[in-house]
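A student in our group prepared the protein record below, which I am reviewing. Thanks in advance; the entry in question is below.
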Amino acid sequence: MATSNDELFDEFLSDRGHETETDSRNWEQDYNKKRCPDCGGLHGLDAVSCTVCGWQP
């Protein structure tokens, strides 16, 4: 049910000129850590790049 609410909200915003697409190439969350979408390496919440593979958002 949350998905349909999200879709309605995205439609509302896009009708008013706002972008609703999210960057699919962003950090994933794993409890209180960031997870690299390329290699799966875990990092602290203050990480700006992956120290395992070098990926940056």
In short: Helices lie at 2-15. Residues 26-57 form one domain. The chain is about 25% helix and 15% strand. The mean pLDDT is 82.
